[in-house]
Write a structure and sequence with these properties.
It is a single chain. The protein is an all-alpha fold and about 290 residues long. It is built from 14 helices and no strands. The relative contact order is 0.12. Pfam families: BPD_transp_1. It is a multi-pass membrane protein.
């Protein structure tokens, strides 16, 4: 009886009223408002009121083919990066979930240490690898596989490879979390019923890990849509994405209204994808 009373007292103490909860969250709300919401609102309003109410900036995006191509290229690049991150990251997450002890710590360190390294440093590392006199071209020349250096840097392929490397931890960690939550007895039961290793993986492990796959995919895809540093450094001026185009409009051309319109379209696409993802995930849970 005393234990029950103590537990109930702790539950009452742990419950906070709405005003108290709001006061605790108020500093974060104010920081988010002043650091993100207010500048974003000012940028979006500047694209509509330039200086009077107009849709000229948004019509320009739809009417000029180059901007439509940049948007489509960005979405295509994000989709390819997401697919590659899944194909390369799922086996790593599967190995992480089934290892233990020191081996698991080593694999986890290999995933987390690049995540803790600056994106700028990792992007410059790819420049060192892929430039005309870089490591890759030097090795190929020394082995006699090519006669002259290949153009590896400042290409769309370089952007895809570098972005996949940078964003892969965001795919691995959610999948790893889902795989770790799967009871090992389920796969053993499938084996006892006669299923092979591949069949048990397809019938048990993969379906139960899909929430982690969905979370990692949407995270990588959305980050790829707005990625700036790696495409700007590795892709160069001839492989513009939406983020690099917005940066060009603000820093070089000083066309803030048009940059706000680009940001508004990007934000709309991102929110639409997040909403579609959440709806798809709810439907998947019902099934």
């Amino acid at each position: 009886m005393p234990n029950t009373t103590a537990a109930s007292d702790r539950s009452v103490v742990g419950q906070l009223s709405r005003p108290a909860s709001f006061l605790l969250a108020l500093p974060l709300i104010l920081l988010l408002a002043f650091a993100f919401l207010v500048p974003l609102a000012k940028l979006l309003l500047g694209s509509i009121f330039a200086p009077t109410l107009t849709a000229e900036q948004y019509l320009r995006i739809a009417q000029e083919p180059i901007f439509v191509r940049i948007f489509l290229r960005t979405v295509q690049t994000a989709a390819i990066v997401t697919l590659l991150a899944f194909l390369l990251g799922y086996p790593v997450a599967l190995v992480m979930s089934r290892l233990g002890g020191r081996a698991a710590m080593i694999v986890a360190a290999c995933v987390l240490i690049p995540l803790w390294t600056s994106v700028l440093v990792r992007s410059y590392a790819w420049i060192v690898l892929l430039q005309r006199k870089g490591i890759v071209n030097s090795v190929l020349l020394n082995w006699g596989l090519i006669d002259q250096p290949l153009k590896l840097i400042y290409t769309e392929g370089a952007v895809i490879v570098a972005m996949t490397h940078v964003l892969m931890p965001y795919m691995i960690l959610p999948i790893f979390s889902s795989l770790r939550s799967i009871p090992p007895e389920l796969e053993r039961a499938a084996r006892n019923l006669g299923a092979g290793s591949w069949t048990s993986f397809l019938a048990v492990t993969l379906p139960l890990s899909l929430p982690g796959v969905y979370a990692g995919a949407i995270m990588v895809f959305i980050l790829s849509l707005g990625f700036y540093v790696t495409p700007a450094l590795v892709g160069g001026p001839h492989n513009l994405t939406i983020a690099t185009l917005i940066g060009q409009q603000t820093t070089e051309l000083l066309n803030w209204p048009f940059a706000g319109a680009l940001a508004g379209v990007l934000l709309t696409v991102t929110l639409g994808l997040v909403g579609a993802f959440r709806r798809f995930l709810r439907l998947g849970k019902r099934v």
